[in-house]
TrEMBL record:
Name under which the protein is recorded: T-protein
Cellular compartments annotated: Cytoplasm
Name of encoding gene: tyrA
Organism ancestry: Bacteria, Pseudomonadati, Pseudomonadota, Gammaproteobacteria, Orbales
Top-rank taxon: Bacteria
Main location: cytoplasm
Domain (Prephenate/arogenate dehydrogenase): residue spans on this chain: 99-361
NCBIfam families: CM_T (TIGR01799), PRK11199.1 (NF008400)
Length: 373
């Protein structure tokens, strides 16, 4: 039995080596694709091509008696690596005029990410920080774009202290709230203004499929090249009014982060045994615990600023607190019928999204289980 098993394992090892050789060949082809895209200004992410390719491979897998989901999982992982390879080849420079890219907060993590992207696209990038802001007038004198990416609580102050910008210079910011910073930029600069919000952290390897929100400020025709440059980097650009953006962020960021914060405080106060929670967790709870733990591995000042950035956020959280209390009353009263009624109302409100989210979450649950020690 041992000899037979070893023979089979040796054959599997040979197949694995063949798979590795094919992956190496595929990545080499992807490198060539990246060079062509760079020359012609084609975005690294092509959703139509990706969808069609995955659909074809799934059909072929099914005909071959292989699970289509297995092939899709493999290909998606390869595509993530492919986007990294394409990213390293640089990008076409959209802007044909003169001028540099000035990033205020350029030495921060997000500033460094965009410095790298602009540099890969052939732009001259300058950074300003707290120790060099006294040089701002000289640094900004030839700017084509000025980007403000500093902590939320300093953004408006920094904008108000900017020296006069060149007439056609684009003024923008990366703040996670938009109404107040956008108004501050409009007050400070008479030229083109747009508010940007990258919906990702600075640790992303590339911008493929990443969302960047943009809120119109002034002279949209003059900042369209900047939007197009980000599309070439692979990002999905989503236009929205600043007021609507901030309403959405109250749910996406403020309420979500506060809920995770409160849950973490409760775990700590109750002295829950984290080692046991991890050992006993289902994949879905493991994901939830990961998201809570992720919050507490980051800068508390950042999350305090996000949650407390507006009175609207506080009002929303207070309403959530009230509803939480109402749901607790159902439990105290043993009102199972009331619980089920609320459950069904929310199910109806979610509509088709409920089933969609079940499907989308399945791959995340598999990944959470795969990474379990």
């Amino acid at each position: 039995m041992t000899t037979e098993l070893q023979t089979l394992r040796d054959q599997i090892d040979d197949v694995d080596k063949s798979i590795l050789a094919l992956i190496t060949k595929r990545l080499a082809l992807v490198t060539q694709v990246g060079e062509v895209k760079s020359q012609h200004g084609i975005p690294i992410y092509d959703p139509k091509r990706e969808t069609e390719m995955l659909a074809s491979r799934r059909k072929e897998a099914e005909l071959a008696g292989v699970s289509p989901n297995v092939i899709e999982d493999i290909l998606r992982r390869l595509m993530r690596e492919s986007y990294n390879s394409e990213n390293d080849k640089g990008f076409k420079k959209v802007y044909t005029g003169q001028g540099s890219i000035v990033i205020i907060g350029g030495n921060g993590q997000m500033g460094r990410l965009f410095t790298r992207l602009f540099t890969l696209s052939g732009y001259h990038v300058k950074a300003l920080g707290s120790k060099t802001m006294h040089q701002a007038a000289d640094v900004i004198a030839d700017a084509a774009v000025v980007i403000v990416t500093v902590p939320i609580n300093k953004t408006e102050q920094i904008i108000s202290q900017l020296p006069p910008l060149p007439k056609d210079c684009i003024l923008t910011d990366f703040t996670s709230i938009k109404q107040k910073p956008l108004q501050a930029m409009l007050n400070q600069h008479d030229g083109p203004v747009v508010g940007l919000h990258p919906m990702f952290g600075p640790d992303v390897p590339n911008l493929a499929k990443q969302i960047i929100v943009y809120c119109d400020g002034r002279e949209s025709q003059k900042y369209q090249w900047l939007i197009e440059q980000m599309r070439i980097w692979g990002a999905n650009l989503y236009p929205i009014a600043a007021s609507e953006h901030d309403k959405c962020m109250s749910f996406i960021q403020a309420l979500r982060h506060f809920t995770s914060f409160t849950y973490g405080v409760n775990l700590q106060t109750e002295q829950a045994n984290l080692e046991q929670l991890v050992a006993l967790s289902s994949p879905i709870y493991r994901l939830e615990l990961m998201m809570v733990g992720r919050l507490f591995a980051q800068d508390p000042q950042l999350y305090a600023d996000i949650i407390m950035s507006s009175s609207e956020n506080v009002d929303l959280i207070k309403r959530y607190y009230q509803r939480f209390g109402e749901m607790v009353q159902l439990l105290e009263q043993g009102d199972k019928a009331g619980f089920i009624e609320h459950f069904n109302q929310v199910t109806q409100w979610f509509g088709d999204y409920a089933q969609r989210f079940i499907k989308e979450s399945q791959s995340l649950l598999k990944l959470a289980n795969d990474t379990r020690p």
